[in-house]
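Lab notebook page, bench 4
Experiment: in silico fold of construct C2
Operator: M.H.
Input chain length: 182 residues
Purpose: comparison with the prior construct
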Amino acid sequence: MVLEAGASVTPCFKEAILHSEWMIAAVLGTTYIGVGLYFWFRNKAKPVKPPVQKNISQSPEGFLLLAGDALRNRKLVPAREFAETGLRLNPDDKRTHSSLLNILGNVAAEEKSPDKALKYFLEAVKIDPSFAFPHNNLGNLYFMSKDFDQAEKAYLTALKLKPEYSDAQSNLTRLNQVTKKI
């Protein structure tokens, strides 16, 4: 309803117009919110597509990624199989080779095979002596077998190679607490 300029409006009618304007604003606001929520929920409800994977799994590095992911998820058999496959592809990169051996050592340790784990960790250290992770894992193995001197040497080597390595720092602190060196 359009009122002409100068037309008088009764107070009751004026309230009805104001009330209508408020209602229209409220309805429009609710509509905007509703439409926004509709699109938000519609986008949320869509299944997330996994990222397109390149054929990286055919390389030692690809199998290293798969083995590491399986180990983090406590899937020991696939972790071992991926790491062994990566090793069979004969990685040229010594860090990749050492990492695959380190994973096999972790799997063996989890499977309560300390002799196999020791073999893998020592081989990983031999292939890439500058890689801190197998040194730390060697320390853990020595710690579990109560060879505290060897454990300390392994943790210190890991920290020398990577001073910010928090796992090695924590493990050395725990070792010092057990041996009362703190």
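Observations: The mean pLDDT is 81. Residues 57 and 65 are 8 Å apart (CA to CA).
Next step: discuss at group meeting.
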